[in-house]
Amino acid sequence: MKSLNQLLEEVKAPMLVFALGGIAVAHGDRARARGLLKDAVVELARAKEERQRLLGYYGSDSEVSYVTTCDNAMTARLLEKRSKEKHFKKLCHEYTEIGGKRETIDEMIEIITSGAN
Fold it and tell me: Less Cβ around it within 10 Å: N or C end of the chain?
């Protein structure tokens, strides 16, 4: 596999290299948004289980409120994830519109993600 520097040297055009940088940032933002959504889904499930357990004993309004808060947080994370996905796709499209190859984006993402492990 190529290194990131080798890949960028092959690209040549500064405008394309700059666009790849934006795509790399958007890819990271998208990954973080996906992780936050996953955490919010887990927290909501946990809150619902806890509510079920406590409502059988106490019937607490505060537990219902906590579940609603978790549900709202999950919804906000879902909207954020969708926004990040859309932005990433837009940047990829713009990159190909200015003359870049989709394969270059895929190679860059593979390099970035393998380096993160």
Answer: C
Q: Tell me: the pLDDT tens digits for 18-36?
A: 999 999 999 999 999 999 9
The answer to whether the Cα torsion of 32, 33, 37, 40 is positive or negative is positive
Please report whether residue 32 resides in a domain.
yes
Q: Which residues of 47-71 are buried (b: 16+ CB within 10 A; e: fewer)?
A: beeebeeeeeeeeeeebeebbeebe
Kindly state whether residue 45 falls inside one of the protein's structural domains: yes
Interval 60-101: pLDDT, tens:
555 567 778 888 888 999 999 999 999 999 999 999 999 999
Q: Which range of residues forms the domain containing residue 25?
A: 20-112
In a domain, 39, yes or no: yes
Number of domains the chain contains: 1
